[in-house]
Each structure stands twice: as structure tokens, then as C-alpha cells.
Amino acid sequence: MKALIYFVFILFAAIAAVVFTALNPGEVTVNLHATRITLPFSLVVVASMFFGVLLGMFAGGLVALGRRRELRKLRKQLALAEKELSNLRKLPLRDH
Fold first, then answer.
1. Rounded to the nearest 5°, which phi and psi values hold at 94?
2. Nearest one of 54, 40, 42, 48 to 17, comparing CA atoms
3. pLDDT of 35-86, one tens digit each?
4. Helix segments in 1-96, DSSP class H
5. Cα–Cα distance between 96 and 91 in angstroms, integer?
6. What is the largest CA-CA distance in the chain?
7. Residues β-bridged to residue 38
8. In whole angstroms, what is the distance from residue 88 CA to residue 96 CA?
9. 41: nearest Cα among 13, 62, 60, 20
10. pLDDT band at 17 (very low <50, low <70, confident <90, very high)
11. Gap between the Cα atoms of 78 and 76, Å rounded
């Protein structure tokens, strides 16, 4: 079922890309500071979206790495606290 959903999503994206390209046949000039390149408008938009997705994935990956580090630290603290609690429970009770 999951594969079917992915297939439908990819098919829809491909159809949308073809329609977008057909509706925007013009060209744009991209200034890259050192040079200028003339490219189809649809290619510029798709490339911009692609690089935006890559940048978002990179930023999300950095956040995920920070969370994993924090989770590892918290698990160590939990293990120490559980060990201390276990040791305290083993101590005999004293009445005064």
C-alpha cells in the first residue's frame, strides 16, 4: 500500500512538472556574479527547489544530531539514577 502511495505521489509530481514546463517556456538570465547563464525558467525553478530541499535536509540533520547527542546524555543520566535508586533500595532500613 505504501508503494502505491509513493507511486501516485511521484506520478502526480511528474505530471505537475510537465505541465509547469509547458506553461512556462520562457528563458531567464541567471547572474552568478562572475558569469551570466541563460536557462529555461522551469529548470531554474526546479533547481532552486532542489537546492532548497537539500539545504532544509542538511539543517534538519544538524538538529537531529543535536537531539541524538542530548538523548544519549539523558539516557546515561537515567542509567546512573536507576543504579543509585537500586543501591538505595538494597540498603537496610534503620530505626532511630
1. -115, 135
2. 42
3. 999 999 988 988 899 999 999 999 999 999 999 999 999 999 999 999 999 9
4. 2-23, 41-90
5. 15
6. 91
7. 29
8. 18
9. 20
10. confident
11. 5
**Grid cell in block for residue 6:** 509513493
* 45 in Cβ contact with 20 (< 8 Å): yes
Other C-beta atoms lying within 10 Å of the C-beta of residue 42: 19
- Cβ of 75: how many Cβ atoms within 10 Å? 10
Query: Model-level pTM?
Result: 0.60
**How far apart are the C-alpha atoms of 62 and 39, rounded to whole Å?**
33
- Cα–Cα distances (Å) from 11 to 3, 16, 36, 77, in that order, read 12, 9, 34, 48
Q: Which amino acid is residue 88, in one-letter code?
A: L
Amino acid at 65: L
